[in-house]
Design goal:
With 455 residues, this protein is of the alpha/beta class. Helix content is 49%, strand content 17%. Helix 4 packs across helix 5.
Length: 455
């Protein structure tokens, strides 16, 4: 069977035009693979249709801007230039006219209408697809996927994909620096913000600071309990990492009267990054990190020396450790310290009843218990009110921030792709990933095109 695919369209003067897009051949149906269109058959048809639609639009547009804006006299055509553009439906070949200076009002300059309208080699939709895929996948893999599904077009190499992604990242970076240098007035300041912040390290290239890993500040700002606004800043890219984080907070509605709850793992540097406005900032030690330390203690109990009463003592130690967790959650660090002493006494009793057994395992658990106690007392002012805050529906942990670290950093920079990064390259990609995560990436792609047309 032979199918002929045609397109018919109505022109500006009302007449109808027809063009043939191509022919398809379909044999007998012997299996599921013989049914319907194939991707290889559809690609040339889509490319042909794209060229017809684009050429018709360009012709209409050039005719509409041919008249001089001053005297409205049509300008003479100087010559024609061929333009090739990359799109998701293949390479578009356009014939673009250039107009001479106006003979009536002597308006200077040769006008090329498509130069201002189409400043780049790629249409926005293709650029958006490339940037979205590059935010989630390695550049080479993103380029390979597009080459498989998109009709034959240019600009799909890994290098071009990387360059187009970093162009968007640099635009977001310039916007953020502009906010740092000239803060915009806060239209709708928030009464309260909850900020969860954490850090992660990424392997650097050898030519940057000897290849030592660099730190990325990652977090979420929540105005109301929900998804929140994610951010990721390379800490030692420049001297303005702190100001950038504060600019993100201002975007989210932080004003001089906004109260702030900061959740972190207790590092002093992380607490100071958000900036302090009088007494409007409260720090709470992240329950996620506390719970993780206690869980490590619980797992070590299973490696105590085995003997006849192992299960009885294991149950005793488990109950004592659960008491530590309970009183820390509901009553605070002082009661938790008493519960830790009871837990320690149980360990001593266990080891004392069996002096012939090596006590090295008990000493390891005691050392980790001492580490937990020191960690809590070093942040004593930030360890309280977990139960009350949780019952009020407030955040008490940074599990959502850990998820953000996985989404932004680990699965793209560390776990799945063991790569070395430059600080500027990592920051540009992180800006793109956070914009995609926050649902605002399309704004920057459109902004790029709009600014170019206005110029």
């Amino acid at each position: 069977m032979r199918f002929t695919v045609k397109v018919e369209w109505q022109q500006d003067d009302g007449t109808l035009a027809t063009a043939e897009l191509g022919e398809l051949y379909a044999g007998g149906l012997r299996s599921a693979t013989d049914l319907g269109l194939k991707l290889s058959d559809a690609k040339p048809i889509l490319t042909r249709l794209q060229n017809i639609v684009a050429a018709t639009q360009v012709s209409s547009y050039c005719e509409s801007v041919r008249k001089c804006p001053s005297c409205r006299v049509p300008r003479r055509i100087k010559d024609y230039r061929e333009r090739k553009l990359d799109s998701v439906f293949g390479t578009v070949s356009l014939t673009a006219p250039r107009f001479e200076r106006c003979q009536a009002c002597d308006r200077p300059g040769v006008l090329s209408p498509l130069t201002a309208l189409l400043p780049t080699r790629a249409l926005p939709e293709l650029g958006h697809l490339q940037v979205e895929l590059a935010a989630e996948l390695p550049y080479a893999r993103a380029a390979a996927i597009l080459q498989k599904f998109v009709p034959s077009t240019g600009g799909l190499s890994a290098v071009t994909t990387r360059n187009r992604t970093l162009v968007v990242g640099k635009r977001i970076e310039r916007e953020l620096i502009g906010e740092v240098e000239a803060p915009m007035p806060i239209v709708n300041p928030a009464k309260h913000l909850t900020v969860g912040i954490d850090g992660a390290f990424v392997k650097a290239k050898r030519d940057e600071a000897g290849g030592r890993p660099f730190e990325i500040l990652t977090g979420r700002v929540e105005r109301d309990r929900g998804r929140g606004h994610a951010f990721a800043i390379v800490r030692n890219l420049d001297a303005r990492a702190k100001q950038k984080v504060q600019a993100v907070l201002r975007r989210c509605g932080r004003g001089p009267q906004t109260s702030l709850t900061l959740l972190s793992d207790g590092e002093d540097g992380l607490r100071g990054v958000v900036g302090w406005f009088g007494k409007n900032c409260d720090h709470m030690l992240d329950w996620f990190h506390i719970r993780r330390r206690i869980d490590k203690l619980a797992r070590q109990l299973f490696y105590l020396p085995y003997r006849a009463d192992f299960r009885r003592f294991l149950s005793l130690h488990g109950r004592n450790l659960d008491r530590v967790k309970y009183v820390l959650w509901n009553q605070g660090i002082e009661w938790a310290d008493r519960a830790m002493k009871i837990f320690r006494c149980g360990l001593v009793e266990d080891a004392w009843d069996h002096p012939e057994i090596d006590i090295k395992r008990f000493q390891e658990i005691e050392a980790r218990l001492d580490e937990l106690r020191s960690y809590l007392y070093a942040n004593s002012k930030a360890v309280s009110g977990y139960g009350r805050a949780f019952r009020r529906g407030e955040r008490v942990g940074t599990a959502h921030v850990e998820s953000t670290v996985n989404q932004l950093i680990n699965w793209r920079f560390c776990k799945k792709q063991q790569m070395s990064w430059t600080r500027s390259g990592a920051q540009g990609l992180l800006h793109v990933k956070t914009a995609a995560l926050n649902g605002s990436l399309h704004n920057y792609i459109q902004h790029t095109q709009t600014k170019a047309i206005a110029a």
